[in-house]
Amino acid sequence: MDEPVKFYQTGTFTVGNRLLPKEQRTVQASRQRGNALNSGHRACQGCGEALGARYVVDAALRAAEGRLIAANATGCLEVFSTPYPETSWQLPWIHSLFGNAAAVGTGIAAALKVKGRRDVRVIAQGGDGGTTDIGFGCLSGMFERNDDVLYVCYDNQGYMNTGVQRSSATPPGARTATTMAVGPEPGAPFGQGKNLPLIAMAHAIPYVATATVADLHDLEAKVERAMALHGARYLHVLVPCPLGWGAASHDTVRLARLAKESGIFPVFEAEHGELTAVSKIRRRVPAAEYLRLQKRFAHLFGEPGHPEMLAAIQAGADRNVRRFGLED
Amino acid sequence: MDKPFAITLDPGSSLANKTGSWRTERPVYTDRLPPCNATCPAGEDIQGWLFRAESGDYEAAWRHLVRDNPLPAVMGRVCYHGCEGACNRAKLDEAVGINSVERFLGDEAIRRGWAFEPPAAESGRRVLVVGAGPSGLSAAYHLRRLGHAVTVAEAGAAAGGMMRYGIPKYRLPREVLDAEVARIVALGVELQLGTRVDRIAEAMQAGAYDAAFLAVGAHIAKRAFIPAGDSARILDAVALLRSMEDGATPVLGRRVAVYGGGNTALDVARTAKRLGATEAVIVYRRTRERMPAHDLEVEEALEEGVQVKWLSTVAHAEAGTLTIEKMRLDEHGKPQPTGEYETLEADSLVLALGQDVDLALLAGVPGLDVRDGVVQVDPQTMMTGHPGLFAGGDMVPAERNVTVAVGHGKKAARHIDAWLRGTALAAEPKHGPALFERLNPWYYSDAPKTEREQLELARRTDGFDEVQHGLTEENALFEARRCLSCGNCLQCDNCYGVCPDNAVKKLAPGRYAVDYDYCKGCGLCAVECPCGAIDMVAEQT
Questions:
Q1: Which residues form the 4Fe-4S ferredoxin-type domain (chain B) (predicted)?
Q2: Which of B342, B281, B353, B336 is nearest to B316 (CA)?
């Protein structure tokens, strides 16, 4: 979102501001926000996913004027919000299996269509494991049929719920319980994994976007854009995981910001398979600045460290900067 | 058990789950002392009034400002703004133009005729203020606001003290000064012009005053012996600047030399230029780095063509020529003679070697401690050794400038008030410093400082028009909004927005509270607070 800076103290980088016109403030700055994911949930301290899910669902609730149904894959989000019989959700919410959130969402959308309820909207959500691996078939089908569902992937880059195992969204070099920091090429292997936003674009669905929990104005604008459209839509939100990444709980937002500012996580929008907008990098930082805050990359630093892997990660970030035109 | 198949527990909300018990540290909202406020000799709450100016409510901003300083339009012109030197924003791009916003507010107040709020109640006490300079006016204003009957006795024909008789018009237009003085008088301060107090004890007795604040200023030029021929034309700076005000244009000639290195020397040299001197040369014994004058003024003077002979002293004055001895600095930085001489053609020589205070009015007052030509006061209260007699400004030991004097007046007024009520004013505990390291600079957008325009050079040296222009309303707003609000909540809602547990409650615009039932103590709110207004405090175990 290339918004001109209208307020010179903090621009539009903060959640709200007393001096911003009402229409430029975020849903999260409002006292009337939905708090769709309520207090008392059992997410870890500083959980990026809890943050991201509230941002997204609150914004979607407002866009749908409160008429919204959520299908949820198994994963952290489901486990920490709904230990039976307790729930943190303040909207109609259904959980079925790890892999079928997209299919369940599709079913709800179909049922609504049959009932002639065009006013009720559907989102499906899951973590990267339930999206890029286990639920991938259902999701691809949902895209291919252009079902009227907004699918939101909260990407914390691993199976955090079950003890930090590698997923197909785990970045190269990262240490997980299944990609230990041992051997000549420690951590997750290079050259594997899936980039689901690009795969979604390849399905040429109406809307695909990436976002982080570090830029609320951008994230909420994307939810709003997605909710204004019908058909299959995909939103991929980077949500740092203090536990799985080995980072301080207060660094969640900073990590998301550094992921974007380093070029490691490009933030963009696409419609019908065509790239339509990118969030430019404001202050470019070296990849190392982002990686150094995370214990899962600790083996890259120190003596002897792995400068060649660091260089490869930096090269990937540079590639993103060129490929998506992240710098002016 | 009347529950559906396989259901054993009642469904419920997660609100029953008080996750606050996980916490080891708790976020606490705090106020910190911003460096600008900490530096201001007048004790202004700069961050506080800028905060109000940011919303465009200039009257509220001005009212907040004048709680501490009744002369913002003067300040916005003559204050050396140490606040800007301390400003945290300088570490991002450039310091906030605090002084220019202050001037804008001061000018707005004059333009729109804003008046001070009258005192809530009369105290029935009478206070005499001697001297209507910055310190006396400030004290009178604060005392009056506290409900006391105040009389200001001023020896001069007009109020303002050194602001009128020492600062040239091109820096402080007299209509600005007059407007701000008039506003203080309108508050109910009695101003007696042309009234010299010769004996303070008698004056207090005659007027039945309960206390007095003395701020007579330093109006006597310091002397230095300069061997001179009979026809050499030698003047002193204080008399020269004063004569400018009295309307008698002094005869200086085409080539004017000024001896000294303070702000007054620069004022004289720049004034000489404006009076038609083709050459104005400052003779100073040390180097530029050691010059006590403020950089900004040196800069402006040099722009206007004022010349400086560094490391030079006047050895002898004759009609039309000066003999200058070259100096060198010894290891202590003190100038030492070299025995090398040169001549400098000058029609007149103006001595700007500092000023002394006429302390004659104190004669016979018991308990006073006069040292180095100034009255010693308790720095906490500004009270002299004589009970009920307070003093400030140039006549007490301090840096001599308008802002310091205004600060003395305020401090003295508060302690005079306490003294009159028979109480002691305890120093309020200061907030911890709002260090740059506590800020989250990411959130501040790039916004370079707005510079004030200056009068073109050609027009500067042939008249006394004001050199520094003010800001437009748009520029002033921009500049105010560059404030980082260091250490004080700027109402950005970030804490409310970034809490993963919805544990920050937004009570009213700008008021937040942490719901400790659910706060897990992650610290996101504190780290993502742009201005560092949240502390993380360890839980007691």
A1: 510-539
A2: B342
